[in-house]
């Protein structure tokens, strides 16, 4: 049975206004996330990473489950960034260690990493960096284009080549650690490693026994050296390690991608030899074996690396990433080619949003024919005329014969008949006589009738 005890410390640093680091230190799961992205993006991404990791790993606390938890965290951040405009482009690093059971039935620690937060393992007083930074500078070191010393001061050292939540898929580096009593694991954000050298980190890990005090001491060191970034540290002690096996396995398991050919051995990760005087706990006589499991989703064939007593199977190096000029003082992500936003949303099944522009478009679409109908109706009906209806004079509203489907309607059938108007008026009445208003039309009929009456009265006097 393995018993762990952890200490966690995090600090905003001396230069930042917010702390975008998040961390977790439970009984069996430990993690550090360093968020990035404008506005609240960094905080949201780091928090989502930690919460999703904890929930997913609780459901499946295995090595494979750890990888799945990273994939789930990546998806959660990615989908959130698509849904919320203010969170577009957010991402985070994530380094996590979970206690679980290996294939041989012994307790092991699964270790997973994406980004440039780091994990170190101290065993027998020797401190060894386990993770490899996914940063532009470190990629160039791995490709032989730059030395470690050049990378430490290179302006591109903050540019990430891999992070959670910036693409639909993510490659996860995964290791299986067989630890022993007295070992000590360190997880930290780059706010520590950019300020404090590995030799000073090792000195603190060896000299401060309590993991909480050790974590705090490392944070204090980072701030004492400038504290230019948020700094977060988790120190995990192996109080009781797995007993029994004295023969370390060279390779525990390889997940997902098949093993590739054994390649040349590059320089090992930072290694600090034990200082005289011993460490905080009993030192095992043999170093723990560290076995990497690649969890590549899209990477090519892995390559095997041997460095001292450490066997590492890591993904084959990808093509050198595209350099992107960094923002002063900030961290960047070297952007991969991105598919159009509309395509990504369609592929992920994100519902299309109804924007104000879409609403206005449809309103205009409906308003144009409605307006045209209104104009035609106004023209067709804004007219009155006098005509003969079954022998009587009548007033109609509309255009004689109708106009574009709008037929005239009878509004006033007078009592004046065609025999009560002068005969020479009948020709005009048969063609219809237009008037500007209903009253004018009615007056016209009345005038015709008066004209006829006046003619009838005067005819006997004139002898007509
Ligand atoms: Mg940072």
Question: What can you tell me about this protein's structure?
Answer:
The structure is a single chain. The protein folds into 2 domains: 3-256, PPM-type phosphatase domain (Phosphatase 2c, domain 1, 4-Layer Sandwich); 381-463, no CATH class. The relative contact order is 0.12. It has helices at 41-59, 63-83, 136-142, 148-153, 190-193, 198-207, 211-224, 341-348, 356-381, 426-431, 438-462, and strands at residues 3-11, 21-25, 29-36, 91-92, 94-101, 107-114, 118-123, 126-129, 159-160, 172-177, 184-188, 231-240, 271-272, 290-295, 302-307, 310-315, 332-333, 384-389, 392-397, 409-417, 433-435. A hairpin with a 2-residue loop joins β7 (118-123) and β8 (126-129). The chain has 11 helices and 21 strands. Strands 2, 3, 4, 5, 6, 10 and 14 form a 7-stranded antiparallel sheet that branches. A 6-stranded antiparallel sheet has the order 1-12-11-7-8-13. The chain has a 4-stranded antiparallel sheet with strand order 20-19-18-21. The protein is rod-shaped, with a radius of gyration of 42 Å. The N and C termini lie far apart (138 Å). α1 packs antiparallel against α2 and α6 runs antiparallel to α7. Residues 247-254 and 257-329 have low confidence and may be disordered. It is α+β, with helices and mostly antiparallel strands. The longest helix is centred in the last third of the chain and has 26 residues, at 356-381. Bound molecules: magnesium ion (MG). Residues 34, 189-191, 229-230 line the site of magnesium ion.
């Amino acid at each position: 049975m393995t018993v762990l005890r952890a200490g966690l410390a995090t600090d905003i640093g001396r230069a930042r206004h917010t702390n975008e680091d998040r961390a977790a230190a439970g009984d069996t799961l430990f993690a550090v996330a360093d968020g990035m992205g404008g506005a609240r993006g960094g905080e949201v991404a780091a928090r989502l990473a930690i919460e999703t990791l904890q929930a997913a790993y609780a459901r499946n606390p295995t090595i494979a489950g750890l990888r799945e938890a990273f994939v789930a965290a990546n998806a959660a951040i990615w989908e959130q960034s698509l849904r919320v405009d203010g969170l577009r482009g957010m991402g985070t690093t994530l380094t996590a260690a979970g206690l679980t059971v290996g294939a041989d039935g012994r307790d092991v620690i699964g270790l997973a990493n994406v980004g440039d937060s780091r994990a170190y393992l101290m065993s027998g007083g020797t401190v060894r960096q386990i993770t490899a930074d996914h940063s532009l500078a470190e990629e160039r070191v791995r490709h032989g284009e730059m030395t470690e010393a050049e990378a430490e001061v290179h302006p591109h050292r903050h540019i990430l080549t891999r992070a959670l939540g910036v693409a639909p898929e993510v490659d996860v580096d995964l290791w299986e650690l067989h630890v022993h009593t007295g070992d000590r694991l360190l997880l930290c954000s780059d706010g520590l490693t950019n300020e404090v050298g590995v030799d000073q980190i090792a000195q603190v890990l060896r000299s401060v026994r309590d993991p909480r005090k050790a974590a705090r001491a490392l944070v204090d060191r980072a701030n004492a050296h400038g504290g230019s970034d948020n700094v977060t540290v988790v120190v995990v002690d192996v109080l009781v390690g797995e007993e029994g096996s004295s023969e370390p396995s060279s390779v525990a398991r390889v997940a997902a991608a098949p093993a590739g050919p054994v390649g040349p051995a590059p320089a090992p990760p930072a290694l600090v030899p034990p200082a005289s005087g011993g460490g905080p706990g009993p030192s095992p006589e043999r170093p723990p074996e560290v076995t990497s499991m690649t969890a590549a989703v899209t990477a090519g064939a892995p390559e095997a690396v041997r460095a001292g007593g450490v066997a590492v199977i890591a993904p084959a190096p990808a093509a050198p990433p595209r350099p992107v000029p960094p923002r002063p003082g900030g961290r960047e992500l070297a952007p991969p080619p991105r598919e159009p936003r509309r395509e990504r949303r369609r592929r992920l099944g994100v519902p299309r949003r109804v924007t104000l522009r879409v609403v206005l478009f449809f309103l205009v679409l409906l308003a144009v024919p409605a307006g045209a109908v209104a104009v035609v109706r106004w023209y067709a009906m804004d007219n009155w005329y006098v005509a003969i209806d079954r022998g009587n004079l009548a007033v109609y509203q509309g255009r004689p014969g109708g106009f574009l489907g709008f037929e005239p309607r009878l509004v006033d059938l007078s009592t004046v008949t065609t025999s009560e108007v002068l005969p020479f008026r009948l020709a005009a009445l048969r063609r219809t006589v237009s008037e500007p208003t209903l009253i004018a039309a009615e007056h016209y009929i009345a005038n015709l009738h008066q004209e006829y009456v006046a003619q009838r009265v005067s005819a006997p006097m004139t002898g007509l």
